[in-house]
């Protein structure tokens, strides 16, 4: 049986460049696009900033912070977990787990949860930072666990879904999936409601399970693997799922962006797209950062592109997030970009971290939190 190989997006793209280079000596990898000039329309105010240990590290982690109430929780790659007052930036507690953290922080129902490179899930008390429990899983956890007050749900790198009792950490159930032969190194965060546990898989499918028992409820294919090589057939859903009302959104690498009915999985609309970082939704539109560096605004009613901004080609954009009337996202040089939801024009820009900004911005009300690769965590508002 062939070994299952897992690659991060950059590694897959690098391999693609090698393949192209072998076939033609005249083709060279293009550099990231230069930053475009524009007339600034939006001024951002830095409310506070804090350094969170070693930040994201160099293994392409996506250690996105999380918020519960007025508390903001962030972790670095070496296992430092910090709780801050999200309005003042005051440090409320710290806990050094002394294990390498790989999955983004999850928070809810009094718990702060995260996964490790050693195949563990750790739950902390949100008020004190004290460890409540630690559980072993089958492989790395590269995304934030989801919590609904009853169970903690994690998706492992080998495409298993595992539910733990939120109070004790005892395993409730495990659902096995067969991962694709070649995948990106990463998984999206699952979505957990009171009834359903939903995840995007490396096979290009979205699956919904009964949250209490782990029994399948529905399954929907978002992307169909195509091409002769395994590289061409990579269709991971790594950017995470977005739930808005009764609609679930997903996007795959080398596949499609789709909207689905939450309860049935029925496709409402779909459109060709390639992204490993995810989507945002607002103003009746869906916004997606494509693997090429283009950002698209898609009309939900017609599934057609309202606008397309390709000025940041090859700048390794983060997942987008809706912030006020704008769409916010980061890039490989650590810039946070703001573009208009209406027509995709640039309206603002702020450099967050010279080491890059690959984690999705976190928006809570009128506040935006950006966590740079080097560990710089910044709180921003619009002046």
UniProtKB/TrEMBL annotation:
Annotated keywords: Cell outer membrane, Lipoprotein, Membrane, Palmitate, Signal
Protein known as: Outer membrane protein assembly factor BamB
A Pfam entry, by short name: PQQ_2
NCBIfam families named in the record: assembly_YfgL
Lineage per the UniProt record: Bacteria, Pseudomonadati, Pseudomonadota, Gammaproteobacteria, Pseudomonadales
Quaternary structure note: Part of the Bam complex.
Assigned protein family: Belongs to the BamB family.
Domain Pyrrolo-quinoline quinone repeat: 78-309
PANTHER family linked to this entry: CELL SURFACE PROTEIN, OUTER MEMBRANE PROTEIN ASSEMBLY FACTOR BAMB
Membrane topology: Lipid-anchor
Gene Ontology biological process: Gram-negative-bacterium-type cell outer membrane assembly; protein insertion into membrane
Gene Ontology cellular component annotations, sorted alphabetically: cell outer membrane
Subcellular location: Cell outer membrane
Cited function: Part of the outer membrane protein assembly complex, which is involved in assembly and insertion of beta-barrel proteins into the outer membrane.
């Amino acid at each position: 049986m062939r070994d299952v190989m897992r690659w991060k997006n950059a590694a897959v793209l690098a391999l693609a460049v090698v393949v192209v280079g072998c076939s033609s000596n005249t083709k060279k990898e293009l550099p990231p696009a230069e930053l475009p000039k524009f007339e600034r329309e939006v001024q951002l105010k830095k409310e506070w900033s804090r350094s969170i240990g070693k930040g994201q590290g160099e293994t392409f982690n996506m250690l996105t912070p999380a918020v519960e109430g007025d508390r903001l929780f962030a972790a670095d790659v070496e296992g430092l977990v910090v709780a801050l007052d999200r309005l003042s930036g005051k440090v409320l507690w710290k806990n050094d787990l002394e294990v390498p953290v790989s999955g983004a922080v999850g928070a809810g129902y009094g718990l702060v949860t995260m996964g490790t490179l050693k195949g563990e899930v750790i739950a902390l008390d949100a008020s004190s930072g004290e460890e409540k429990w630690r559980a072993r899983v089958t492989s790395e956890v590269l995304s934030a666990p989801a919590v609904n007050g009853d169970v903690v749900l994690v998706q492992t790198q080998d495409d298993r879904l595992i539910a733990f009792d939120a109070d004790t950490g005892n395993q409730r159930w495990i659902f096995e999936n067969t991962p694709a032969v070649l995948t990106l190194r990463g998984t999206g965060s699952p979505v957990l409601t009171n009834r359903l546990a939903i995840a995007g898989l490396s096979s290009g499918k979205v699956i919904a399970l009964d949250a209490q028992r782990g029994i399948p409820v529905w399954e929907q294919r978002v992307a169909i693997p195509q091409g002769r090589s395994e590289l061409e057939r990579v269709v991971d859903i790594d950017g995470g799922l977005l739930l808005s009302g009764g609609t679930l959104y997903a996007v795959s690498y080398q596949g499609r962006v789709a909207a689905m009915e939450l309860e049935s999985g029925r496709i409402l609309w779909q459109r060709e797209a390639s992204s490993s970082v995810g989507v945002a939704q607002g103003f009746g539109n869906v916004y997606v950062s494509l693997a090429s560096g283009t950002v698209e605004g898609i009309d939900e009613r017609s599934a057609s592109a309202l606008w397309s901004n390709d000025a940041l080609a090859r700048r390794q954009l983060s997942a987008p997030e809706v912030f006020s009337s704008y769409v916010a996202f980061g890039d490989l040089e650590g810039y946070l970009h703001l573009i208009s939801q209406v027509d995709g024009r640039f309206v603002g820009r702020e450099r967050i971290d010279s080491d890059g900004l690959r984690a999705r911005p976190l928006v809570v009300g009128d506040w935006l939190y950006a966590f740079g690769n080097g560990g710089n965590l910044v709180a921003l508002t619009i002046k």
